[in-house]
């Protein structure tokens, strides 16, 4: 392949643009435009859906969609495969995302953001009055015991938490390493867990895995943590569960209608809201940049990316 043209779906930090430039010309494109200029490789992020009409109007010369991030639910993988387009991701975010999930769990249970908010507003009494929920010794229910779920469980061990989980199938290795217990059903996990963390993929089977019925099955006062994908949760149902007082709190790094946040969520002191920063450390973002370059180099040199998803 001669030097390819790389079509980038949003502005990126200059060091990453410079790194991509080693492979060929880099152009920023608008996927919502009527036409997309000629190019060979799409470099994209989870914020840029590539499905349906967008996928259909990609130049015929495109043969790789290189995603910066681990999740690829924003790309129609089967349709891309039928068009002869490979899709890659950057599976180097496990530890940083698990750090963030644990921080979100702690911040939500102890109402740290609310206390800080009041303190910044010069309201010491209200800040001091934020009574949270104990974390150590509680039961953590993990939905999705993949790499990030296991990394979160390792962190929770340090707080003496009991780990239970659901997964497509039992993970004996994780059970042996983490002392985790497999729940045959989601309903069993929701009934037992004091804190529920969503760490599963987003797909048609997991969309709204936490809906009104699931929320009603959680223990009164339980806490929900989502550092996975926003549409795993029905946010309208979540707001109702918070308004009723059934839930003890929620910590969210991702949103159903991202980047929009359902307005009702901002009204609660027992809700911690972050702006999809699971991988947002300098080190992790550098790792992601290197990995997307590895995938592009492998595609150019060998015809297939290292981390092919389809």
UniProtKB/TrEMBL annotation:
The molecule here is called: Glyoxylate reductase
InterPro entries given in the database record:
Ado_hCys_hydrolase_NAD-bd, D-isomer_2-hydroxyacid_DH, D-isomer_2_OHA_DH_cat_dom, D-isomer_DH_CS, D-isomer_DH_CS1, D-isomer_DH_NAD-bd, NAD(P)-bd_dom_sf
What PROSITE patterns does the annotation carry?
Answer: D_2_HYDROXYACID_DH_1, D_2_HYDROXYACID_DH_3
So what family is this one in?
Belongs to the D-isomer specific 2-hydroxyacid dehydrogenase family.
Residues in S-adenosyl-L-homocysteine hydrolase NAD binding domain copies: 116-282
Query: The organism sits in which domain of life?
Result: Bacteria
- What GO terms are given for molecular function? glyoxylate reductase (NADPH) activity; hydroxypyruvate reductase [NAD(P)H] activity; NAD binding
Q: One Pfam family, short name please? A: 2-Hacid_dh_C
One Gene Ontology CC term in the entry? cytosol
Keywords associated with the record: NAD, Oxidoreductase
